[in-house]
Amino acid sequence: MQFPDGIRLRVMAGGQEIYSGVRVASSFLSRLRGLLGHAPLEDGEGLLIIPCDAIHMFFMTFAIDAVFMDETGRVVRIYRNLRPWRITPVVPGAWMVLEVKAGSADDLSEGDVLSFERG
After folding, report:
1. Domain contains 2
2. Residue closest to 74 by CA, chosen among 56, 92, 54, 86
3. Does some domain include residue 104?
4. Cα-flanking dihedrals φ and ψ of residue 71, to 5°?
5. Which stretch of DSSP H or E encloses residue 21?
6. Which residues have C-beta within 8 Å of that of residue 64, sequence separation ≥ 6?
7. Is the Cβ–Cβ distance between 60 and 82 less than 8 Å?
């Protein structure tokens, strides 16, 4: 699964939209920057980083939920309420990560399959 850098996506689970404003970070620079300097995420917002199998929260000012997925969109690991100055370990099988507002991934579970539509 590949998307151009900077486009906006809608994220679906079970045919229902769960996030409406997800930006893609697929270039080296956009992945490096991530959410640094970004205001805290609102409901429905997020950042999809491709490729990615681990993240850090250095210099961040707010917590996030990090949803790691394989190339098919299957959730392989979720880190909830990941606070600033933390690092995730490398997640085996992960190809991408969806960073969303802390608490907004509470209804997701490992094994769920997410799909993406240009939005």
Report:
1. no
2. 92
3. yes
4. -65, -20
5. strand 16-25
6. 35, 41, 57, 82, 99, 100, 101, 102
7. no
Q: Give the pLDDT score at 1.
A: 67
* Dihedral angle sign, alpha carbons of residues 28, 54, 103, 107: positive
- Within 10 Å of residue 100's Cβ, how many Cβ atoms? 24
The pLDDT tens digits for 46-67 are 999 999 999 999 999 999 999 9
Place of tokens 């997410």: 114
Nearest alpha-carbon partner for 113 in 3, 16, 7, 4 = 16
Q: Is residue 33 assigned to a domain?
A: yes
- Please state whether 6 falls in left (phi above 0), alpha (psi between -120 and 50) or beta: left
Cβ proximity of 34 and 54 under 8 Å: no
CATH number at residue 81: 2.60.120.1140
Structural domain count, the chain: 1
Q: Tell me the C-alpha distance between 29 and 31, whole Å.
A: 5
State if pTM tops 0.85: yes
